[in-house]
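During the second half of the funding period, the structural biology subgroup turned its attention to how the target accommodates small molecules. The most pressing case was NDP, which had performed well in the primary screen but for which no bound structure existed. We therefore specified the complex as follows and requested a full 3D prediction, including the ligand pose.
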Amino acid sequence: MARKIALITGATSGIGEGCARRFAQGGYNLIITGRNTGKLEILKQELEEEGVQVLALAFDVRNREAARKAVDYIPETWRNIDVLINNAGLARGLEPEYEGDFDDWDQMIDTNIKGLLTMTRLIVPGMVERNRGHVINIGSVAGDAAYAGGNVYCATKSAVKAITDGLRIDVAHTRVRVTNIKPGLVETNFSNIRFHGDTQRADNVYRGIEPLTGDDIADVAFYAACAPEHVQIAEVLVLATHQASGTVIHRD
Ligand code: NDP
Ligand code: 8X3
């Protein structure tokens, strides 16, 4: 049987990179995307050496025209995308809402909400037409309840929940499945980006707890994708064992 195709946004790091490896290992060919062309190329080479076919598309999900061009560039043999993993995203800052940075807000809203919507709008029509496919959005526990300083980031992840639920309703007449995965603390580059490269502050986020890894979330995404076709894993909250909720964390 031909290998299925997964398109993963933000495959250059963390959860997206974990998904790339997990889906490759699980028999998928991959369309990997991100802005970092160097990292995309390294991952592509690594996976190709393992016999996986990989198409690397470098673009910024905030740039709708660039996203459209990249999707238009996908060759015919790659167009029947089975799984779209909308993972590209980030948090910026942890300031109180009344002191937040406008540029940080724009970057989170433009990436986490508008970028995810752009990719959905570009890829899902093909799935609806083929009457098969799976959209896996990476939301967050942060979308369930706001936490101190989380304001706009939490709002973007609440939006991911609403957008995911909305899509599930809109494709309910098809065999397209829609999943929202909501991780808790996952040790990736996420906190370095959030704190603008302050590694000490970033490390402190995972102090005294064994956090999740990108691979843990990739396993959950792959599980959802592998469920029998009549089974739709609608939403999954995945927490580290010592994290009870967005704000309750037991640290040693
Ligand atoms: P990383 O910083 O390790 O990875 C983020 C990925 O997103 C990178 O591959 C980056 O690629 C990509 N990305 C960011 N901005 C853009 C953009 N404008 N255009 C294209 N790609 C972009 O963080 P994580 O792996 O942790 O984050 C992945 C997702 O998981 C995010 O949506 C995040 O909100 C979510 N999440 C993370 C949690 C955590 O604790 N780490 C918990 C819950 C959810 P590049 O730089 O090459 O563009
Ligand atoms: C990432 C998890 O709790 O740092 O979405 O916001 S958290």
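Two results from this model are relevant to the next phase. Residues 73 and 152 are 33 Å apart (CA to CA). Residues 9-10, 12-16, 34-36, 39, 60-62, 87-90, 111-112, 115, 138, 140, 183, 185-186, 188-190, 193, 214 surround NDP (ligand 1) (CB under 6 Å).
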